[in-house]
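Encode chain A's predicted structure.
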Amino acid sequence: MGLFSFIKNAGAKVFGIGKTEEEEAKEVAMEAAVKELKREEAAARKLEETITDLQLQVEGLKVFIDDDTATISGLAYNQATREKVVLVVGNSNGIATVDDQMTVEHEEPIAKFHTVASGDTLGKIAKTYYGNAMKYPVIFEANKPMLTDPDKIYPGQVLRIPTLD
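Encoded structure for chain A:
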């Protein structure tokens, strides 16, 4: 009878056993999506744990990560706590955007935020915002416990700049 040619990877396997390339591709994509979701859920739990370890008071804290966006909800004790939680999450690797849906129990003035540039020091930042480089401890204190040393800031990090009383 002779030799017959077929497209090697088209169609289902003999007797319906196996999958087409399209079915296999969909399955691989689904497995990758599930793996990514588990990674995002683990990262969200780790952020919640870090916020708790830093003793930032947020009742009912929930962090949800979708791709590079983190959504935060809960009741923060005050505005400073709310802003610190946003900074903990936003200054984490892989997070580009924070959707802050928290509420605040004790209202306070909203702080400004500053993204650290190369060559910045807390003194330079204090000079810019307060007109006095010696006010750098105000910025340092406003960013505790995330900052542990006034000399350890890095480009790209976002800091709280509270209003002076």
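The CA atoms of residues 18 and 159 lie 55 Å apart.
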